[in-house]
Amino acid sequence: MANLLEQLAAMTVVVADTGDIDAIRQFTPRDATTNPSLILAAAQIPTYQELIDRSLRESRQVIGAEAPAEDVVREAIDEISVTFGKEILKIVPGRVSTEVDARLSYDTEATITKARKLIGLYAQAGIGTDRVLIKIASTWEGIKAAEVLEREGIHCNLTLLFGFAQAVACAEAGITLISPFVGRILDWYKKSTGRDSYPGAEDPGVLSVTRIFNYFKTHGYGTEVMGASFRNIDEIVELAGCDLLTISPALMDQLRQSDALLERRLDAAHPGASEERIHIDEATFRTMMAADAMASEKLDEGIRGFSKAIETLEGQLAHRLAVIEGGAAFTHAVHEIFLLNDLDGDGCITREEWLGSDAVFDALDTDNDGRLAPEDVRGGLGAPLAISR
Fold this sequence. Notes:
Blueprint: H1 4-9, E1 13-17, H2 21-27, E2 31-33, H3 36-42, H4 49-63, H5 69-89, E3 96-99, H6 108-124, E4 132-137, H7 140-151, E5 156-161, H8 164-172, E6 177-180, H9 182-193, H10 204-218, E7 224-227, H11 233-238, E8 244-247, H12 249-256, H13 282-291, H14 293-325, H15 327-341, E9 349-350, H16 358-364, E10 371-372, H17 374-385
């Protein structure tokens, strides 16, 4: 008898929710999705260090030998996202989702620009738009950006989706796919109600996705529904038949280990009861989100979490760049300090110009002349940074 994972794959597109290329190879899903947190986790695996290093070197070539390290790292985030995506596409037959910087979630134009850049990087590798989904947070600004991109033939996956208003706005905008976060919805309700658990059929995240799915199918929207962020396999079982489900390797393994019979719960051809069709403009969107504490709080929390993951990844990349480039990277760091603090451009920094703390200035000013020359900064920072010159 087929295991649960095999039965699920017969009625739902199974997507790997991971940046671990080996795990994707093990479970052979049709699609894969990543985000900064997943790439950050994958970046800790020694096997992938060469991918990271290659992206950093390519970014240095793109940005230029004299560019500051922070610019190289910023470029490398995009390069690494696409590098992982390209490796994943060697394994999966379908699509990979690549995420726009979450810090741009409330900036429509910046989101559009970043998405076009990511698609351009894929195009340079000969990968077409049919194999890539651009992941964007489901803010009003993000949905409007995705609407523009979809008209250009750039397909989007709207993520961090928790509320019905977000889902309907995405459908009306003609978005390719949405990712309602089942587990995070459950987390909010457990904390809010004090309940330890919910049976699968009563799980608030399951109920939310079921409502969205039936609404889309009843009213003929083409936007696909991909349940995401699962906490247990009961949630997955209750959504069998959903267009797509993105599942972590750990939960896929649990599904694979079970030979229980799986029944279809959702059916696009015969959707369950649904409410009347509504229209979502910006005012309605904001009113409905304001009335939905769960959706508003989880959206904000998700954006902050993804943003923090990006910042952490940037910090790790900066360190790795320093290791790769040695003295060159250190020279860039010193150069940046002087660009920021040498206000009159005379090649030295006085205490009045110094933007940092007096304690740091005093530590660097080893000859106590009240001025910092490049050699003072190199000498003072070189040891703690452990970068050879």
